[in-house]
Amino acid sequence: xxxxxxxxxxxxxxxxxxCKNIQxxxxxxxxxxxxxxxxxxxxxxxxxxxxxxxxLGLPMLTPNNxxxxxxxxxxxxRLTELADDGFIVPKAIAVRYQNPAGIMTADLGxxxxxxxxxxxxxxxxxxxxxxxxxxxxGVRALFELHQxxxxxxxxxxxxxxxxxxxxxxxxxxxxxxxxxxxLTSCQVRDCIFFIQSTAHYFNKNELKEAQEFxxxxxxxxxxxxxxxxxxxxxxxKLIKIFTPIASLMxxxxxxxSLRFMNGLx
Length: 265
Ligand SMILES: Nc1ncnc2c1ncn2[C@@H]1O[C@H](COP(=O)(O)OP(=O)(O)O)[C@@H](O)[C@H]1O
Ligand SMILES: [Mg+2]
Known about the structure:
Blueprint: H1 6-16, E1 22-26, E2 32-37, H2 43-55, H3 68-84, E3 92-96, E4 102-106, H4 117-126, H5 132-147, E5 160-162, E6 168-170, H6 183-198, H7 204-219, H8 223-238, H9 242-248, H10 254-262
Antiparallel strand pairs: 1-2, 2-4, 3-4, 5-6
Helix pairs in contact: 5-6, 5-7, 6-8, 6-10
């Protein structure tokens, strides 16, 4: 594997194959790699949206405001930094900044597909089983990552996956929010994104237990982070206008996250 020209393979695939946003490719020797095509973001829309969200007192929820090339280099830095801190993230093996731009990472799924926490929660709910055990493991994994002064940036449950050995792997680093906010805000952002992406998996009866588990973990954060998180949740609950803005940002299931947050403070 080491003597392959990954840079050339990346270019060949980006130029000649129909590559979706992110996709797994099997190479000639049967090994797998993942390739993400760099996407161009509408920076005007991001900055208008960011301005509105900041004005509402929620600067930690502002969207990515960097160009495709900058986002790629942010992604490489985040992957390196998290791996150096001992977290499981895809290893970048080739990057191309000029058009066609993209990144290639080593496969964490060992040739199979790793199921994200989102996928696992979906099937648990479909089978009418209890989402709390796996969800609370996800909450603890995020908390432990925060304890090590780290952050994900896009802590949706679709960006977290439990490996067969039960350790967690993390994905989705195209946006590094540290470019526009401090560590506490990045961690608060993670918590809100995690709640936002998972709250709808709980039915009314299960919700209370989930809220209690969250509240217990919340109390274990440093007073500064716990307070910033409380302030953000209070603000989100206050701002009715948050709902249309959140849908503009592509957030789904806003009502269930608000219901979750309502039970917290
Ligand atoms: N290197 C990798 N190894 C294994 N699975 C991967 C890898 N890269 C991406 N994936 C899978 O693809 C999903 C989407 O990747 P992500 O980087 O989050 O892209 P997107 O921005 O489209 O969500 C991940 O949640 C994970 O399941
Ligand atoms: Mg993702």
